[in-house]
Structures are given as structure tokens and as C-alpha cells.
Amino acid sequence: MITRHVVFDASRSADNERRLELVGSIDGAFCTLIYTMRGKAIRIISTRCSNRNEERAYRDGWLHI
């Protein structure tokens, strides 16, 4: 269960939609989820293990939206 997380704007100029990146910890492992909103629905684009920069941002408690 993710109890604490940080969210970043992950939009790319080539995309015509806003993408968000959520970084959280599940049982001590850092995970990153890229998603977008489609109306009221959440569309998951990808999920993976977080990289070092994402882990650092999580630890620093940044919130960028």
C-alpha cells in the first residue's frame, strides 16, 4: 500500500495530453507510475521501478504539478 507519494508533471511536447508521474514506496521498494486523466478515468501508461533521481525526489518530498 502506498501511503506517501510525490507527483510530477511528466508531459511531453509530442503528446497532446497531460501526463503525471507518481513516485511512491511499496514495502520499501520505490515505484513510478505514469498516468493521464481521460475524463473521469485514470489511464495508466506505465509502471516500473524508480530511478535514482525519482527516489531522491521522493525523499526530498517535492511536489510538482
Molecular structure report:
This protein has 65 residues and is mainly beta. The chain has one domain. The protein contains 1 helix and 4 strands. A 4-stranded antiparallel beta sheet has the order 1-2-3-4. A hairpin with a 2-residue loop joins β2 (19-26) and β3.
Which key phrases capture this entry?
single chain, about 60 residues, mainly beta, 4 strands
Layout of SSEs?
Layout: E1 5-9, E2 19-26, E3 29-38, E4 41-49, H1 52-60
Antiparallel strand pairs: 1-2, 2-3, 3-4
Based on CA inertia axes, which overall geometry fits? globular
**How widely separated are the two ends?**
22 Å
Quantity of strands, as a count: 4
Going across the biggest sheet, name each strand in turn: 1-2-3-4
Radius of gyration: 12 Å
- Give the integer mean of the pLDDT values: 85
The secondary-structure element order is EEEEH
How many distinct folded domains?
A: 1
Describe the sheet with the most strands.
4 strands, antiparallel
What structural class should be given to the helix and strand makeup?
mainly beta
Strand composition percent:
over 45%
Number of continuous helical runs? 1
Summarize, please.
The chain is built from one helix and four strands, in the order ββββα. It has 65 residues and is mainly beta.
